[in-house]
Amino acid sequence: MSKRENFGTKIGAVLAAAGSAVGLGNIWRFPIETGKNGGAAFILVYIACIILLGLPLMMSEFLIGRNTQANTARAYQKLAPGTSWKWVGRLGVFTAFFIMSYYGVIAGWTIEYAVLAIGNQFAGKTPAEFAQVFTDFSSSTWLPLLWMVVFVLMTHFVIVKGVTKGIERWSKVLMPMLFIIIMILVGCSVTLPNASEGVSFLLKPEWSKVDGSVVLSAMGQAFFSLSLGMGCLCTYASYFDKNTSLGKTAVQVCVIDTIIALMAGFIIFPSAFSVGIRPEESGPALLFITLPNVFQQAFAGAPWIAYIFSVMFYLLVIVAALTSTISLHEVVTSYMAEEFHMPRKKAAAWETGGIIFFGIFCSLSFGVLSGITVGGENIFGIFDWVAAKICLPVGGMFISLFAGWYLDKKLFRDEITNYGESRAPYVKILIFILRYVAPVAILAILLNEIGVLSLLN
Ligand code: TRP
Description:
Strand content: under 5%
Structural class: mainly alpha
Helix content: over 70%
Bound molecules: tryptophan
Shape: globular
């Protein structure tokens, strides 16, 4: 097999991992989950999940990936030959495929909104009109399909260009730009009239609203947002070089990802409250109805600023989504290429075709297929539910069991300390969390949701 590429620079590795983590999960899914689950209290549970589960799991994925330098399924075979652990890797490949299929739909919507912004279609519209535009578009058949396909093909294009040339170069320039524009938008949003109600929704926890399903949602969101639980970061870490500090990188990625999610919350909710949109009933619409409205209101006196901001914002969201889908695509592509000995191009083409096929059903589930539901969720919602609330937590649980119990402690310590190059006094705590805390917590949260724990009472 030819030598695998590595990320050219350390900052490139961090940014690529952060690029995977930061995406629609932060800007689109986080506000939805926060809205549905009651605001500030959800956010605190979410942050607890990031620190207690996310960070240790991220370090585990990093160390498994860098140690084996292989795709995620092969990684487990290398570390645990002849055992069933390879199924953890395979579950990850399946999950990646699954997430891509519906993620591409929303990513496609952001292209439509970039096009609308470029055509100055937001100018002078009222919130009610924005709502109408969104409903008309998302329930139509062809346009959302077209954009979904365009988006998936964009991902495909970067993937076949290879790791350093594609992923790293994109991430390095565009991530910082996204950060800056988000910061400016927070400023705009919190100064809108009546924005303070939205701010207190984000800051004043109402603990009475927290139940098992809120906790599951927070955990699922933490995994989703950090790209954890299915070998995505494991695959990326296989491209890290041997001097990359795994602990530091993990902390940096968690911090960046959480800050961006929180900032997205501070853009969306103050502006939603400002125009009287209730957070719990607005769902997928927040990014597409509330936000265009922010631009119009905040810059009512200067329409050209509103224009530039809305164009830049949606373009950057496309980029953020793209750096995430690249990482999802890469999991499946590198798996197929290396396990089935195909050229990368061919592997990528199979993957792209499959995503588009399932993506069609997810896209149509907002329109002609909206009648197909399970428990009130359309096909899209079912995909999201299964991926974020079942596959990722289950994957995460097995990864933590693997890292905590199965992996050789010396190998574990060597990887975390870069073979003695740096100190990592926290290794013992880390292993303790991976052995006991994380698996038990994840299992309890899952069982609670299925209702098993209530049977015990
Ligand atoms: N974390 C990305 C986001 O927030 C989405 C994503 C990329 C992802 N890779 C993943 C989610 C792996 C779960 C698992 O948009």
